[in-house]
């Protein structure tokens, strides 16, 4: 059970969200349609999935689907190998129509990071750390 193989986000508009992640941020996918029932992106070690929000809520509980309210207490993180990559990613986000929540800045732990939200308000962090090490597949090692 010590493995997360897929991260799924419920989105309000599949077409716009696919364009944001695929065209704006460069995520790789095999999705050919603009509005598929689900869309998987290929990220090292984990699949990243977009799923229509209302359908996802009904999939969880068709009789009493959960409501989405504000900050869920979860963020996703994208760790980069070079400090300047934080700035580059934030420019991609800005150009793709994402909202910059926290501009790139130094952290209390010696790193450099920023926060942004996607088109549905999910929070993502892009971070560089002086002690971050990556394997040959680009996965963060501790």
Automatic annotation (TrEMBL):
User: Which parts of the sequence belong to the VOC domain?
Assistant: 3-129
- Which stretches are transmembrane? none
* InterPro entries reported in the protein's UniProt record: Glyas_Bleomycin-R_OHBP_Dase, Glyas_Fos-R_dOase_dom, VOC_core
Task: Name the source's superkingdom.
Answer: Bacteria
> Gene3D superfamilies recorded for this chain?
2,3-Dihydroxybiphenyl 1,2-Dioxygenase, domain 1
PANTHER family assigned to the protein according to its UniProt record, in alphabetical order: BLR2520 PROTEIN (PTHR36503:SF1)
Q: What is this protein called?
A: VOC family protein
């Amino acid at each position: 059970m010590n493995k997360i193989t897929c991260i799924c986000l419920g989105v309000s508009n599949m077409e716009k969200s696919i364009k944001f992640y695929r065209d704006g941020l460069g995520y790789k996918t095999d999705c050919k349609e603009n509005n598929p029932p689900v869309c998987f992106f290929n990220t090292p070690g984990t699949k990243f999935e977009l799923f229509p929000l209302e359908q996802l809520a009904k999939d969880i509980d068709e009789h009493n689907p959960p409501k989405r309210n504000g900050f869920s207490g979860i963020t996703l993180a994208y760790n980069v190998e070079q400090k300047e990559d934080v700035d580059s990613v934030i420019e991609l986000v800005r150009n793709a129509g994402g909202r910059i929540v926290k501009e790139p800045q130094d952290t209390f732990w010696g790193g450099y990071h920023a926060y942004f939200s996607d088109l549905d308000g999910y929070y993502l962090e892009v971070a560089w750390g002086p002690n971050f090490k990556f394997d040959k597949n680009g996965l963060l090692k501790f």
